[in-house]
């Protein structure tokens, strides 16, 4: 039996940097074969080279998940190689920053396509097969933003609320069918996401940013424990708890002030 057949396969989107890359390393070190999805083909090749030192198979696919046909490309790639995805990590995500009325529609729709549409398509496709096999794990990456409304990042916060609610509902549906669906909800992470989204953080806010490596370690540990909602960092857990008791009108005013810098 080849190593490709004898070990589980983990499919990770957004796998060339940040949390996705750190999770890929952790799975690789534990002997899991990898299917890595990202836009940058050259970075994928570099990551593949780095991770193959762990004596695993690393398959890579360059695809833009904001394109309608992107998920079909992923499915065709997996089927052509006759691979079974035992673990799916929906990590790919983008943000947008500014007043909703001023952000270009194209940018908002690309966010929705990546954060919501692609995540939903990938989850539905592989969850069906996992339920059929009575085995599998899915982790969808949301954010602490999922727990509140986010003025000046309205679409991003709303997209992460969708991810959290979808994940909780699916886990309830399949928890007795041999499948686990978890949601990772980190706070600010040092991944370059902030700069890409156009977010400027003050010095105090920067102090609370966690490293992608630390977030991945916590996520990996709690995923093995079977936790449904994973919130890395004590401060982030406290913020989520406090937010539950705040009237929404106050919560959104606080977020508005924070997002205004």
UniProtKB/TrEMBL annotation:
Where does the signal sequence lie? Answer: none
Has UniProt tagged this entry with the keyword Nucleus?
Answer: no
- Superkingdom of source: Bacteria
Q: What are the entry keywords?
A: Oxidoreductase
Please list the GO terms describing molecular function.
Answer: oxidoreductase activity
GO cellular component terms attached to this protein's record = membrane
Q: Which Gene3D superfamilies does the protein's record reference?
A: NAD(P)-binding Rossmann-like Domain
Any Pfam family matching the protein: adh_short
* Family per record: Belongs to the short-chain dehydrogenases/reductases (SDR) family.
- What protein am I looking at? SDR family oxidoreductase
Q: Which organism is it from?
A: Clostridium gasigenes
Q: What is the lineage of its organism?
A: Bacteria, Bacillati, Bacillota, Clostridia, Eubacteriales
């Amino acid at each position: 039996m080849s190593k490709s057949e004898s070990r589980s396969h983990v499919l990770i989107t957004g796998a060339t940097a940040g949390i996705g890359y750190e999770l890929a390393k952790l799975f690789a070190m534990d002997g899991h074969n990898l299917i890595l999805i990202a836009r940058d083909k050259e970075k994928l090749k570099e990551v593949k080279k780095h991770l193959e030192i762990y004596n695993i198979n690393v398959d890579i696919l360059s695809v833009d998940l904001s394109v309608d046909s992107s998920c079909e490309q992923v499915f065709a790639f997996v089927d052509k190689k006759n691979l079974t995805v035992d673990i799916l990590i929906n990590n790919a995500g983008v943000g947008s920053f500014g007043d909703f009325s001023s952000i270009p529609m194209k940018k908002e729709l690309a966010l929705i396509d990546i954060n919501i549409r692609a995540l939903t398509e990938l989850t539905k496709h592989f969850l069906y097969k996992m339920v059929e096999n009575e085995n599998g794990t899915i982790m969808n990456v949301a954010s602490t933003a999922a727990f509140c409304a986010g003025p000046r990042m309205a679409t991003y916060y709303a997209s992460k609320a969708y991810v959290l609610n979808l994940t909780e509902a699916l886990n309830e549906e399949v928890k007795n069918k041999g499948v686990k669906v978890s949601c990772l909800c980190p706070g600010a992470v040092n991944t370059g996401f902030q700069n890409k989204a156009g977010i400027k953080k003050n010095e105090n806010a920067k102090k609370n940013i966690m490293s992608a490596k630390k977030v991945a370690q916590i996520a990996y540990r709690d995923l093995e424990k079977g936790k449904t909602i994973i919130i890395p960092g004590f401060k982030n857990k406290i913020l989520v708890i406090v937010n539950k008791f705040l009237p929404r009108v106050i919560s959104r005013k606080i977020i508005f002030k924070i997002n205004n810098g």
